[in-house]
Amino acid sequence: MDLIxxxxxxxxxxxxxxxxxxxxxxxxSIVIIVIVLILLAYSFKTGNFLFPNVMIISLVFxxxxxxxxxxxxxxxxxxMDRISIYLRNKAMCxxxxxxxxxxxxxxxxxxVRSINCPARLSPEGIKCKDCGQCRVSEARKxxxxxxxxxxxxxxxSFIIRMIKQYQPKAIIGVGCLCEVKEGLDLMxxxxxxxxxxxxxxxxxxxxTLNWDKxxxxxxxxxxxxGIMSSIGSNMxxxxxxxxxxxxxxxxxx
Length: 253
Ligand code: SF4
Prior knowledge:
Layout: H1 2-46, H2 52-61, H3 63-72, H4 77-96, E1 104-109, E2 120-122, E3 125-127, H5 136-146, E4 149-153, H6 156-166, E5 170-175, H7 177-190, E6 194-198, H8 211-219, H9 224-231, H10 237-246
Helix pairs in contact: 2-4, 4-7, 5-8, 8-10
The chain binds iron/sulfur cluster.
Pfam families: DUF116
InterPro entries: DUF116
Protein name: DUF116 domain-containing protein
């Protein structure tokens, strides 16, 4: 009888401890979610970001409940996605800039081409013919001049194939909000530091892109002297780096 009582009281004690721990975890989660929502509200209002590293981790762990609350408040999912991309870019930038240009690759979507593009599909993506009808040609020459591998992406599986073939150490990915977010998630799995650049206007054809921002991202490097001479620019490099992580996301639409 004593043994049964001892076992029962032990289970009861353990259940109480477990229940208390779960309650503490739940309360802690609610507190973190509330803090993140306050930080997000601040970001929405001002375009500035407080405690970015805390926000990145919190958004990863509590994405579901945070989205649910934002939906209840009738806040578009895309605003959170933009913040998430911005924060990841910001977090990745210090690692990304250490990788030499020659070990980086850039992937841009085929929809940024002119609708009259004469380029043809090849095993290495769509090959620009430098016809000058869009700025892809200029971007390709600039990127390859620095040392990048430059790809115009015909389809999503293409990126994985090129990564396996060329094994770049860092990546710039251009795309719509959804593509960039998924792409950054994918590169996170491959452990490749990546910067996402979002299209200004998405769609299937003739989409638009802030090309100057893309050029700024391409230039990012620790070797400022090398960059200045290679791009022949008078623009202070610090400005360029700031634009890389901040421009476009500084004002959250
Ligand atoms: S510049 Fe290149 S990508 Fe643009 S339309 Fe001409 S061939 Fe196509």
